[in-house]
Amino acid sequence: MTEHISSAHVPTGSVPATWYADFFTYLPNEFWRRAATEQWTAADVDFVESRLGLTAGSRILDVPCGSGRHSLALAARGHRVTGVDLSTEAIAHARAVAHARAVAAAAGGTVRFEHGDMRDLERHGVFDAAICMGNSFGYLDLAGTRAFVDAVARAVRPGGGLVVDFGVTAESILPGFTGEANTMVTGDITVVANEEYDAEASRLISRYRFSQGARQLEATAIHHVYTSGHLGDLLATAGFTDVRRHADPDGTPFTLGSGRLLITARRR
């Protein structure tokens, strides 16, 4: 059966700007839930705790939180976590896992998941830290990204920390970019991905075919590509300082060709 057909075969210019509103259904979410190992998540959470100097009971905003793997792991370490995401499937999954695990009860942490847009954070100075993991920073165009960064800045208290995880900086994807098809398999889910770079709009267009038995999904994702310097300027304009760049949770410095950018910053 076909679960959902998105904009996989329409011209690049016709891909809706709000592609992310319909993209994150069961097959994409389940694929990434399986692909992200416990070791990967633990390394990310170690990085967040150590680089931001978090103490037990810290109030953390995870936005967008996806299926909640970082939120759940942080809560299990004794933090008070709020996860926000626009995908109803991902939020439902995260809530179910939290309930099944009775997560964080022994450690004294808490976690709650809210359905909502990453730009609509009606909180002011209540979080000790915010995290934006897994490439979602590039989902929005420049105006939307500014709105998101401003919303996070309002939500984090003065002196609070921020971690942004982004694998689609210009320094990461453009050196050696070929656009060749890539096939990924996890369990009984297969994904074929084709990528093209829209130089006029500085966007990476990713067209996916997900397959799980008779279930198939074709969908297109857009990542707006920013330079490392541009990201730093966006954060500084919103009120963040002490911006530092890493290529890996072990603290490796970010350089040209690094496949991943982990930015840490402080709310001025």
UniProtKB/TrEMBL annotation:
Please indicate if the UniProt record lists Cytoplasm as a keyword.
Answer: no
List GO molecular-function terms, semicolon-separated.
Answer: methyltransferase activity
Would the keyword Transmembrane turn up in this protein's UniProt record? no
Q: Domain Methyltransferase: where?
A: 60-160
Q: Which named protein is this?
A: Methyltransferase domain
Q: Which InterPro entries match?
A: Methyltransf_25, SAM-dependent_MTases_sf
Upper taxonomic lineage: Bacteria, Bacillati, Actinomycetota, Actinomycetes, Frankiales
Q: Name one GO biological process term.
A: methylation
Keyword terms of this UniProt record:
Methyltransferase, S-adenosyl-L-methionine, Transferase
Gene3D superfamilies xrefs: S-adenosyl-L-methionine-dependent methyltransferases, Vaccinia Virus protein VP39
Query: Which chain regions cross the lipid bilayer?
Result: none
Judging by the UniProt lineage, the source's domain of life is Bacteria
Organism per entry: Frankia canadensis
